[in-house]
Amino acid sequence: MARVCVYGGNTYRLLEEFRLSRCERCRCEANREVYCSISGCPAPHCVNPTYEPNHCCPICKAGPNCFAGSRVIPAGQRVNIDEQTVCYCTYRDGTWHTHPYATCEQPPQPSPTPDARIKPSRDEDTYGKGGRTYIARLDAIP
């Protein structure tokens, strides 16, 4: 009995390992059968990975990123989505893997300047005749 495997028109010795491509690894087993496996790829650090001819696993050409709505934003930056919303990519606990969706916040609005505060009106309900302050007495209300 021959101590080889024939696979794809090629002959391999028993227990010999070989590659069919950058991603596929095969082995001629003792029972003369060829078993192949595809390389496991780590999760990409982006939401828009691309597959390149010379790479087995997808790559992130633009670096880590995430979605803010339908927009892809880069990790490590705060991005103004509109006049009231700032979004940024967050990382999964203990890793450099970004969550696929951004965290978005509405920044606190600045407090009004002293000149912009509303001044009480100067009518006779607040001030009595002659400009003196009028304080309503609850015990005088029938």
UniProtKB/TrEMBL annotation:
Domain VWFC intervals: 3-61
Protein name: VWFC domain-containing protein
Region (Disordered): 101-133
GO terms under biological process: negative regulation of BMP signaling pathway
Compositional bias ranges of the Basic and acidic residues kind: 116-127
Coiled coil spans: none
Protein's organism: Pleuronectes platessa
InterPro entries in UniProt: VWC2/VWC2L, VWC2L_C, VWF_dom
Any Gene Ontology CC annotation: synapse
